[in-house]
Amino acid sequence: MTNKRVLLIEDEPNIIEAIRFILSRDGWRVDTHSDGSTALDAIRARVPDLVILDVMLPNKSGYDILCELRETTDVQDVPVLMLTARGQKKDRELAERLGVSKFMTKPFSNGEILSTVRELAG
Amino acid sequence: MSFNLLATICLAYVAVLFAFAFWADQRAASGRVGWLASPLIYTLSLSIYCTAWTFYGAVGYAARSGMEFVTIYLGPTLVMVGWWVLLRRLVRIGRSQRITSIADFISSRYGKSNMLGVLVTLLAVVGTTPYIALQLQSVTLSFDVFSSTPGDNLREIAFIVAIGLAAFTIVFGTRNLDVNAHHHGVVIAIAVEAIVKLVALLAVGIFVVFMLAGGPGPMLDVIAASPIAEQTIQPERWTVLIGLSAMAFLCLPRMFQVMVVENSDERHLATASWAFPLYLFLMSLFVLPIAAVGLNVLPDGANPDLFVLTLPLEFDRDMLAMLAFLGGFSSATSMVIVAALAVSTMVSNHIVMPIWLSRQQGGATVSGDVRKVVMVSRRISIAALLALGYLYFVYSGGSGALAAIGLIAFTGMAQVIPALIGGLFWRGGTRVGAAAGIGVGFAVWLWCSFLPSFGDASLIPASVFANGPFGLSFLRPQALFGIEGLDPLVHAVFWSLLLNTVAFCFFSLLSFPSPLERLQGAAYVNVFRYTETAPGWSGGGAEAEDLLVMSQRILGAGEAQTLFTGEAQAQGKGGYLPDVTPPFLERLERELAGSVGAATAHAMLMQITGGVSVSVEDLMRVADEAQQILEYSNQLEAKSQELGRTARQLQEANEKLVALSVQKDGFLSQISHELRTPMTSIRSFSEILMQGENMSPEDRARYSQIIHDETIRLTRLLDDLLDLSVLENGQVTLNYSEVTLGTVLDRAVDAIAHSSAGIQIVRDLQSEDIPLHTDGDRLAQVFINLISNAQKYCTVDNPSLRIVVGQEAGRPVVDFVDNGHGIDTDVQSVIFEKFSRGSDPRAAGGAGLGLAICREVMKRLGGGIAYLPGQGGAAFRVTLPRTQAVAA
Amino acid sequence: MEKPGQPLFLARASYRRRRVADAARLVPFFGVILLLLPGLWTTTAGSMIYIFTVWAVLILAIGALSSRLRGITEADQEASEPRRDRPPDG
Questions:
Q1: Do chains C and A touch (3 or more CB pairs under 8 A)?
Q2: In what order do the strands lie in the sheet with B800-808?
Q3: In chain B, how long is the greatest CA-to-CA distance?
Q4: C neighbour chains, 3+ CB pairs within 8 Å
Q5: pTM of the full structure
Q6: In A, which residues are within 8 Å of B672 by CB distance?
Q7: B–C interface: beta-carbon pairs under 8 A
Q8: What is the ipTM of this complex?
Q9: Which of the residue ranges B196-200, B625-629, B782-786 has the most confident prediction, judged by mean pLDDT?
Q10: Of C49, C48, C53, C54, which Cα lies nearest the Cα of B231?
Q11: What tens digit of pLDDT does each residue of B438-448 get?
Q12: Pick the CATH number of B628-728 from 1.10.287.130, 1.10.1670.10, 3.30.70.240, 1.10.760.10
């Protein structure tokens, strides 16, 4: 389980640091990427075991990335955990329609995110 | 009288002229035009028609040919007396089309054709050069009369005079780019000179008639007894000369300049119509007496061209001679100054600008100031023209009598007349016809009049005079088509104008004019019938911002911005960018034409709009047929345009509402996002710290720091939200006090000083000394916001921010202009909305409330803030409330 | 020169003004005819007196007419060209 890789697509440096700290303490390897437009290329370059995806990203929204991801053959089965700070009901519905594996609103508790990651990629 | 004393008095006189011109320019610059633009000054300025040729030459002319000299004044008298028919039309068109010169007038009439502009400019240069040489010669000769060693230093004197005149013209003639913004300094100097030369000639005349001849009665006896009495008037020369001088009066570049371009009010013509003939009347009243007495009294070999000077000297009237000398000097200098001014405008607008434009890779929209190019080219043209005149003077060695050269120049410029008159009264005249007419007339004039003027054997061999070129006897320069025995001048005028007119009519009838030519033709011919001309543009793909960039280069930033805001307001829009409508393009083109001429202005707009000029359909509006129906349909069209504009405004408002409601809708989710993001970090790190096991002290400190920073970010967001809500609801209390703009800016710059590493701030402290009655803290808040925005968004290598204080519509404005990439046009309209962060949502690191707050603050303070397009980088203009107190 | 849509008959004042304009158009034609006559004569002193007399008459005639025409251009300009002059320091 030490080899499992998580790709974190997020642009807030403090949140990146928090998630990296929580997951790497649990033995996960965390790669990060913070630009929306090249996110899909980053996923395809080295397919991770789980993608953690923010919604509000520069240049391209998380929804668009998710949508394209689900239409790209070699990565369409990768589990995606979506994080958003907007957390309205319609956001969740949209994400689920696009095929998200799990949808969480910020702020989250550290235990919550850890258990969700374990559940999706464990 | 010593030569040195003369030179000193001369210099003093020039200094006085400089002073007058400087004073008038100062006065006009401070807005007190007043009598500077009065009918009297206008009339006096027309007197540049009377050159040194008139002043000295008329007496010589009278001594040689009797009354014939007076024809030169009778032509202009008839033109002025007939002002209601012709001049009024000319001046009205000149003003409504913002004409800059005779070349511009012709070019604009025939479809803004630059080819015609170039042709007329060439004609003007060739015709003006000998004329300038003539003035240099007469000044030089009159100096020589006083010299102890006659015949020496002629060239040196001419050289010094030429340089002095060039300097004066450059200093007072090329201050404003806009030729239509009148040259008050030059005009006043000319008016002073007009008085000096009239007084001088009258004084000499009165001296001659009453002191030398003993009264009017004996004077007539002297005339009857002198050789002049035997000179008979030759009817054909008499008629041709009156006609020729009338034509020259209309189209000599310098006359067109003072009569049409410098005219500030059509009503001045009404006064000039009798006052200028009166001036000419007085100028010629004593010519014949002076000539008769001169021939009687002075020795046989004396040059009659200098009688005005030599007669007083002969009787030791030094002061009178001095006055006469200054009169002649005035005549020469004022002519040269205005001629150089007029011709240099033509050269720069019709030759230099088109070449410069076509060599510009990026077309008309590239940045950089065109005004410098125009100014420099005008100055160089002035210097070059005077150099040419000097060279002509040196080369021709003072050949020929003064009057002969003047008449040759008249004939040259008169070649413009068929195209000018035809263009004024006949809509069928075309560009091709005008070019053919002027071309043919020019060629005939060169062959029959200009080249022979250099002397019988200098440029054209004697054999050609006798047998024609290549033995073609019908092409002999002074006997075209075998018609011999005519006076050479009559011969040249007759053939050049006849062939010119025939070519103009023939080619006009054969060719078909372009839509623009027909439009301009109608605008000229019907100038009194239509109060407004049909728009010369049918809309187009031009971007308002591109047009603004170009206009700023020609008109200067302030004037271009005023023009654009004015137009935007007239269209019911805010900001600096109006819709690019045909009437707007028309108006813009006319403004530009006032600076660079119609042809160049049209070409520049064509480059930007992609050539969507007038179409044949647009011409329907000016068609004479079914005028009434068309007028009616025009009204309908105007109404439908009005409706269209209203619909566009409605649509715009609607779009804005939709955008606003989308934003209101997004507002909650935006706030949610802005609040939750920092909270996420705070929650995560506080949980991490709470668990607290095996953590290094450094990590612990860092995580506490993050929590701390994020709470500050949250607080700031809440502050901004509260601030904005208070401002929007109008509950804000403002603390008004007396401050100066400079101190507020100081405070703003200091506030960011600690974090403003990297961006260089350029200020002009002197211009910032403006007293304000306002809330200094709030104003500083706006400035801080703008400066820190520039810091964040200006991502070039050497970021710099210029803070420029100016005036707009009487209110102080502060521009913040950085050298970055600016803001895209499509985003410009939303940057002042809440949570808008330009194209890159994260770059600012703020919540996107800054500019929204700025806008609200400025609204509360009674000012405004707007994005200023077309400045290179991003630019914001803060408009300050009008100050009651006037700055010291 | 009549504009379409203008009344066929004018009030006395406007009628007078139009005839003044007509007279102003005629002055140069008479001027041309009178000033071309000296071409037929011979004596210098005589033609000098004749020319200066005609000249003075022309000046007086157009002076009298122009002062009345000034009013027309004025009304004309105010009606048709409200915005003409730019600020002098433009």
A1: no
A2: B760-763, B800-808, B811-818, B875-879, B864-867
A3: 134
A4: B
A5: 0.65
A6: 85-88
A7: 138
A8: 0.90
A9: B196-200
A10: C48
A11: 999 998 888 88
A12: 1.10.287.130
